[in-house]
Design goal:
This protein has two helices and nine strands. It is of the alpha+beta class and 136 residues long. Strand 7 and strand 8 form a beta hairpin.
Length: 136
């Protein structure tokens, strides 16, 4: 797919200072993996946006990262123009809340398996969507 995608984001230093990532326009798959690997052990946000997305359907995938806990958010518009967000769902998690960048999230929506994150980002990168088996 990758017709008109952009990847960008930021990380936080150990002093809490924000380090902006330079946006990558029309990224290659190597760019995608390089940036994901960069975020693996950092606190911050990485987003890939499909600027060529249809009026309905997915248009952006975001990764929020802190302390090796990862929150994936797939943003999309439905056919009525309503904004929806799809996340992973881990029914085996306890339901405890975990702080990700100052906001509390149920551990049922968090991922610790970075291979899963690669898989989700690669699917969005290649198709502009992510299957509902991965994010629902």
């Amino acid at each position: 797919m990758n017709i008109d995608m952009v990847i960008g984001g930021f990380s936080l230093t150990c002093l809490g200072e924000r380090e902006q990532l330079s946006p990558v326009i029309r990224p290659s798959e190597q760019d995608l993996y390089r940036l994901l690997e960069y975020m693996r052990d950092r606190t911050g946000v990485l987003t890939i946006r499909n600027n060529f997305a249809d009026e309905s359907g997915p248009y952006q995938l975001s990764l929020y990262s802190q302390d090796n806990n990862y929150l994936l958010l797939l943003s999309e518009f439905d056919i009525e123009g309503e904004h929806n967000v799809r996340t992973p769902n881990n029914d085996n998690a306890s339901g405890d809340c975990i702080d990700i960048l100052g906001e509390m999230h149920s551990d049922k929506t968090l991922v610790q398996n970075f291979d899963f994150i690669y898989r989700v980002f690669k699917e969005f990168f290649n198709t502009g969507n992510v299957s509902k088996e991965l994010l629902n």
